[in-house]
Amino acid sequence: MKTFVLGGGCFWCLDAVYQKTQGVSSVVSGYAGGHVRNPGYYEVCSGTTGHAEVVAVTFDENVIPEEIILDMFFALHDPTTLNRQGYDVGTQYRSVMFYATQEEKDLFEKAIARNQPLWSKEIVTEVSRLPEFHEAESIHQNYYAKFPEQGYCQVIINPKLAKARKYYSSWLRA
């Protein structure tokens, strides 16, 4: 099993897709990259903690290649916008990949290079050493499954799920 810690805007979006991905055994929403110990959601949303909203995606690389996990990451958000995803603005919504090993760092940098031709602007995804990971409050875990009718889920997450189904249908569970 392997775990990648990735941030691409609101963690609910990445969580929703990776929860439906074959070979993924767990997705934990959380916060990483900041200077405050044990931050809470409202602190992180204030933009004052330095943390990004992230997901820790644990998967079996014998079932789903790590390249697919990373290519999905680049398809699910706009990695060319600095510190924003749509209406979510601030460093807490930055595009970021946190590595634990040099091998992961190299893999992440290769994923950026592989995905760059798909974008007309430069990818600005940050690649940083994994600091302490703080698990988000329970309400944020598997959010889409709990609240599929909520407005944010309908307007923001559903189109991302549709895009994932279009390009990665063979890797997604119903």
From TrEMBL:
- InterPro entries in UniProt: Met_Sox_Rdtase_MsrA_dom (IPR002569), Met_Sox_Rdtase_MsrA_sf (IPR036509)
The active site lies at 10
Q: Give all residue intervals belonging to the Peptide methionine sulphoxide reductase MsrA domain.
A: 4-154
> Might you give the EC number(s) for this enzyme?
1.8.4.11
**UniProt key word Oxidoreductase:** yes
**Where are the membrane-spanning stretches?**
none
Catalysed transformations (reactions)? [thioredoxin]-disulfide + L-methionine + H2O = L-methionine (S)-S-oxide + [thioredoxin]-dithiol; L-methionyl-[protein] + [thioredoxin]-disulfide + H2O = L-methionyl-(S)-S-oxide-[protein] + [thioredoxin]-dithiol
Q: What does the UniProt keyword field contain?
A: Oxidoreductase
Which enzyme type, at the first EC level?
oxidoreductase
- What function does this protein fulfil? Has an important function as a repair enzyme for proteins that have been inactivated by oxidation. Catalyzes the reversible oxidation-reduction of methionine sulfoxide in proteins to methionine.
Q: Which family does it belong to?
A: Belongs to the MsrA Met sulfoxide reductase family.
- Kindly provide the name given to this protein in its UniProt entry: Peptide methionine sulfoxide reductase MsrA
Q: Which organism is it from?
A: Arthrobacter cupressi
